[in-house]
Design brief:
Elements lengths: L8 H31 L13 E6 H11 L2 E3 L9 E6 L3 E6 L13 E2 L5 E3 L5 E3 L11 E4 L4 E5 L5
Antiparallel strand pairs: 1-9, 2-3, 3-4, 5-6, 6-7, 8-9
Length: 158
């Protein structure tokens, strides 16, 4: 016995398309549900979705790179479209700053880093050094392990 067949041309055209749309709709709903469970519906970034630390590698190698080429600008690691600047000097070691002037809001970002230097230019064309940049929220800091690896802790204190 043969399975029943759709008789009209319209039904034979619409039913497979509707079935495909229903399949992809259920697939999207399932993926959305899985993401909601993983994130626990939190609006805050967590270790479930994004790491709270950033492994940079050998502290000695990173210090040499910064000494030769200037501070490293890292794109949007702390959220809210805030770039950070990793600097180093022999006296104080590694430091993190936000990539905007300390005397301005975050809507005036550092526009340009002068090549191979620690000099930046802000949105108003002013020349800035790393010390002129804003400090990150408390808790965001570089850490050097006993093995000599540099890790950036990107978790701000509550």
């Amino acid at each position: 016995m043969q399975p029943p067949r759709l008789q009209s041309t319209l039904a034979r055209a619409v039913v497979p398309v509707a079935g495909g749309l229903a399949f992809f709709g259920l697939l999207a709903l399932g993926l959305w549900g899985a993401a909601a469970v993983i994130s626990r519906n939190s609006d805050q970034t967590s270790a479930n979705l994004a790491p709270t630390t950033y492994e940079m590698g050998s502290a000695t190698m990173i210090a040499e790179i910064i000494a030769d080429e200037g501070p490293i600008v890292l794109q949007d690691l702390v959220g809210d479209d805030q770039n950070i600047v990793l600097s180093w000097n022999e006296e104080t070691g590694f430091a993190i700053h936000l990539a905007h002037p300390a005397d301005r809001e975050a809507n005036c970002p550092v526009v340009v880093q002068q090549v191979a230097s620690a000099t930046f230019e802000d949105c108003d064309g002013r020349s800035l050094t790393v010390d002129d940049l804003a400090l990150p929220p408390r808790g965001i800091a570089p850490e050097v392990s006993a093995a000599g690896l540099l890790t950036l802790d990107l978790t701000a204190d509550a």
